[in-house]
Structure formats: structure tokens, C-alpha cells
């Protein structure tokens, strides 16, 4: 018993009674009130609920049906909900319009992030990105500006109106992150940092959850479930390429994940071709393919001077190339019933 659908005429009284019943069995509930029906998602170990107990709930006043979700991820599953729209300062992710998140890999300095934010906005991006805390392979590489970087991002948002997407690596930075970011990114290397997932699950900010370097789709959805199990249901999945035997590209961008996720989950799916391929001249074709495959958004690394970038310059689009790509994406979006 994982999902309880209430009758259209079910009263608040009946709902309250049902929630009490679940509580008495040590279960929690997520109530989602739709336009026609209220659906109660049962959270906790429902495998211990016996068939008799399930039947008793089935006949309660106001209850229409009781279903079990076989999948180990319940809240993230398509059975639980059809679609999720995430509204960030008026920009919707998961709707008809494709959300474009663009900006440098790292916030390197104030001038740079302000300039890039202006340029990507002009070209039609709806979010600005930039890392203030950078997960670098070498401890000697640039690690990001930390809170100073977050402040510059907030300034860029003030100037352009673009909401900010930036990565959180450590729960100790959550408080400062919540102050500045609009969407919290969980990087590929932290996709299974379960404590971190639970922490971002306890705040009310959308989370962009990148796919782990070696994560299966199921593991990825289980990580989304971790976040959602704490009550934060605003999770965006971001395909960013996985490790395969192929070394000619930085990663192998798994675009089949997009239509597959559309079957498995109601969460919006964004594609990051920049980290997916690692080479700037392969980014535009893969961005187009991602849109054609049904992605709800794109995450693109853009820099005014990639040659001088402190990280990921080789995969960053110049601002002009980004603007050109945005134009070229329009007919592709239209062909699949979307807008950009
Ligand atoms: C990034 O977005 O700059 C980043 C570090 O991405 P990933 O976690 O996918 O490697
Ligand atoms: Mn990067």
C-alpha cells in the first residue's frame, strides 16, 4: 500500500482520519491535492502492512482505491504523479518552455559572472549558473570563491533577473547556500552522498540532481527519492554523461535516459551536454539532440573567454556560439511541441 486515492467528494475529516490511521502504523504521508482528486503517498516501510490492514483502509470513508508501487522509488515514480512543474521566480521547469541554464563552470570573479549573465540573458537563457564551490579532481586546482562567489551570483541575479543555479558540496554550507541560490545543484560526484541528499531534502529549494559518473538510472532515482523522502519534492534530474570504455569524449552522454525517465518518473529532466562530451564543438549538436529527445531543459557552460577559463574551458561555448545555438534550437523545440 503506497498510494491512496481519495474519492472526489472525500471530506477533510475523512482525510484527517486516514492520516491518523497511517500514523498509528508508523507511516507518514504526503498529501497532494489535485484539481479533481486528493492523492495520499504513503512514506515509510509499507512492506510490513498486511493485506488485512490494507483492506481495512480500502473500505474507509472517502477512500476510492489503494495501490502498491512495486518500484523502490515511490515518490519519484510516475505512478505517484504524472508531471511535476517547478516554478522558480516565475520560470517554470517541466512545462512547454525548455529551461536553459547557462553560465561559466566556476564563478571566477565579479566582472566575469556579471558579463556572462548579461550575455546569456540576452541570448534567451532563463537561469544563470556558476560554481562557487567546485569539486575538482586535484586539491591544487582552483576550488571556487566560496561565499564570495555566491554573493556575485546574487548580484548577477539582481542585475539580470535570472535565477541562480549553483552547486552545494558540503552540508555545512547549506545555510549560506539557501541564502543565495535559487536552485541547489548536487554534483555528479555527490549523487550518492546520502547525508547531503537528506540535508537538501529538508529545505524548500529546488534541487538539480546530476547523474553520478557510474550511476544507473535506478540508483539515480533512488537518490532523488532520498531528497523527496524528507519532504522536498522539487527535484530536477540532470543527465551529464556517464563513464564508459570510450575515452574520445569526456563522458558518454546517455540521451536514452531522457525518454526512459519520462516513462519512469514525473520529475523534470535536464541535459548537460557540456560535461557530457567535454568538447565545445560537440556541445551544440548534442544540445539539439537532447531537445529532440524530449529534455525539459539544458545546462550549458558558457564563457566569454574559454581559453582563459579557470575550469572546463575546453567544453565551454563562447557567448556568440551560445547565442547562435539558442536560435538553432528554436525549430527543433517547435518540432517536438516545445518552445525555447
Ligand atoms: C559542473 O556543473 O560544473 C560540474 C562540476 O558538474 P558534474 O558534477 O556533472 O561534473
Ligand atoms: Mn564544469
Overall description:
The protein has eleven helices and 15 strands. With 340 residues, the protein is of the alpha/beta class. Strand 11, helix 7 and strand 12 form a beta-alpha-beta unit. Helices cover 36% and strands 19% of the residues. The strands form three sheets. An eight-stranded parallel beta barrel has the order 7-8-9-10-11-12-13-14, surrounded by seven helices. A four-stranded antiparallel beta sheet has the order 2-3-1-4, covered by helices on one side. It has a two-stranded antiparallel ribbon with strand order 5-6. The protein folds into two domains: 65 residues, 2-Layer Sandwich (Alpha-Beta Plaits), CATH 3.30.70.1140; 250 residues, TIM Barrel (Alpha-Beta Barrel). The radius of gyration is 21 Å and the shape is elongated. It binds phosphoenolpyruvate and manganese (II) ion (MN). Phosphoenolpyruvate (PEP) binds next to loops. The site of phosphoenolpyruvate has 9 residues, from loops.
Question: What's the architecture of the largest domain in CATH terms?
Answer: Alpha-Beta Barrel
Question: Number of helical runs?
Answer: 11
**What about the largest sheet?**
8 strands, parallel, barrel
The secondary-structure element order is: EHEEHEEEEHEHEHEHEHEHEHHEEH
User: What is the structural class?
Assistant: alpha/beta
The CATH topology of the largest domain comes to TIM Barrel
> Quick one: how many beta strands?
15
Give the CA-CA distance, first to last residue. Answer: 40 Å
Give the CATH level 1 class of the largest domain.
Alpha Beta
How many structurally independent domains?
Answer: 2
What portion of the residues fall into strands of 2 or more residues?
A: 15-25%
Amino acid at each position: 500500500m503506497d498510494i491512496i486515492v481519495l474519492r472526489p467528494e472525500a471530506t477533510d475529516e475523512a482525510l484527517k482520519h486516514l492520516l491518523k490511521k497511517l500514523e498509528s502504523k508508523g507511516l507518514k504521508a504526503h498529501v497532494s491535492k489535485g484539481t479533481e482528486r486528493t492523492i495520499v503517498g504513503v512514506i515509510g516501510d509499507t512492506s510490513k502492512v498486511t493485506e488485512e490492514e490494507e483492506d481495512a483502509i480500502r473500505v474507509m470513508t472517502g477512500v476510492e482505491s489503494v495501490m502498491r508501487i512495486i518500484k523502490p522509488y515511490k515518490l519519484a515514480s510516475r505512478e505517484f504523479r504524472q508531471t511535476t512543474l517547478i516554478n522558480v521566480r516565475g520560470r517554470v521547469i517541466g512545462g512547454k518552455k525548455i529551461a536553459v541554464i547557462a553560465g561559466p563552470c566556476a564563478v571566477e570573479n565579479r566582472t566575469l559572472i556579471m558579463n556572462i549573465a548579461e550575455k546569456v540573458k540576452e541570448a534567451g537563457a532563463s537561469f544563470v549558473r556558476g560554481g562557487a564551490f567546485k569539486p575538482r579532481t586535484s586539491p591544487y586546482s582552483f576550488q571556487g570563491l566560496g561565499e564570495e562567489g555566491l554573493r556575485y551570483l546574487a548580484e548577477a541575479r539582481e542585475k539580470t533577473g535570472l535565477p541562480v543555479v549553483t552547486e552545494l558540496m558540503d552540508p555545512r554550507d547549506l545555510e549560506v547556500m539557501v541564502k543565495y541560490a535559487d536552485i541547489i545543484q548536487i554534483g555528479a560526484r555527490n549523487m550518492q552522498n546520502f547525508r547531503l541528499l537528506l540535508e537538501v531534502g529538508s529545505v524548500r529549494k529546488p534541487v538539480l540532481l546530476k547523474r553520478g559518473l557510474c550511476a544507473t538510472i535506478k540508483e539515480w532515482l533512488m537518490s532523488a527519492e532520498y531528497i523527496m523522502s524528507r519532504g522536498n519534492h522539487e527535484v530536477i534530474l540532470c543527465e551529464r554523461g556517464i563513464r564508459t570504455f570510450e575515452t574520445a569524449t569526456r563522458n558518454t552522454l546517455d540521451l536514452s535516459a531522457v525518454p526512459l525517465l519520462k516513462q519512469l518518473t514525473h520529475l523534470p529532466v535536464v541535459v548537460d551536454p557540456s560535461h557530457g562530451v567535454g568538447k565545445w564543438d560537440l556541445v551544440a549538436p548534442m544540445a539539439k539532440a537532447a531537445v529532440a529527445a524530449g529534455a525539459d531543459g539544458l545546462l550549458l557552460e558558457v564563457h566569454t573567454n574559454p581559453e582563459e577559463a579557470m575550469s572546463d574551458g575546453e567544453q565551454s561555448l563562447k557567448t556568440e556560439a551560445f547565442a547562435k545555438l539558442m536560435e538553432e534550437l528554436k525549430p527543433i523545440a517547435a518540432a517536438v511541441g516545445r518552445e525555447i
